[in-house]
Amino acid sequence: MNDSDYKPKQLLTKREKEVFELLVQDKTTKEIAQELFISQKTVRNHISNAMQKLGVKGRSQAVVELLRMGELKL
User: Please, what are the domains in the chain?
Assistant: First the structure.
C-alpha cells in the first residue's frame, strides 16, 4: 500500500456530515429532518453525537471546529 493510498478515517459519519452541511445553510432542525427523511429527534441525535466526537458544547462551536478541520465547507 502506497502512502498516496492512505485515507484518514472520517471523523463524522456520512449522515452527521449531511446534517451539518444543511445546518450551515441556516436550515432548522425541522427542515433538515424533512430534507433527509428522518425525524427531528434523529437530527438532534446526529448533532449531539458529532458534538461529543469534537469535544464541543454547542452547535456553533461544532461548526467552527469542522470548518477549521476542513470537514465542512461554507
Answer: 12-67 (1.10.10.10)
